[in-house]
Design brief:
By secondary structure, this protein is mostly helical. The chain is built from six helices and no strands.
């Protein structure tokens, strides 16, 4: 039997956190939105460094997970990309484009030659 998935809005909603300054968060998100719009975001690590205290709460992940994924965008999930676009009010494709471009820079092409027949 397939699992039922709860698609309610509460499932993907940030909870209040007293360590997060709402004005600082708003300013950081406005800044990121503007930078995405003008093409100034060059790497995904810029997102995690914008407001390091509040950004994990906005994204719904721990600080360690945020640093791990956003500093190596090959580890980002689709949910991370979608949430980043949501909280910055940016088009999904724009965030995805930055993530893919950044991931390609950090990627080493996979060598599968040992799994293929030898050429004569």
């Amino acid at each position: 039997m397939a699992k039922k998935t709860d698609k309610s809005e509460d499932k993907n909603a940030a909870k209040f956190e007293k360590r997060v300054n709402p004005y600082t968060m708003l300013e950081a998100l406005r800044n990121l939105k503007s930078r995405f719009a003008t093409g100034d975001v060059r790497s995904m690590k810029e997102i995690s460094s914008e407001y390091a205290t509040g950004m994990p709460f906005a994204l719904g992940i721990s600080y360690e997970t945020m640093i791990n994924r956003y500093h190596d965008p090959r580890k980002l999930t689709l949910e991370d990309i979608l949430n980043t676009a949501d909280i910055t009010s940016t088009e999904y494709e724009t965030v995805l484009k930055v993530a893919i471009r950044d991931a390609i820079r950090n990627h080493t092409k996979r060598d599968i030659s040992k799994l293929l027949p030898k050429k004569d």
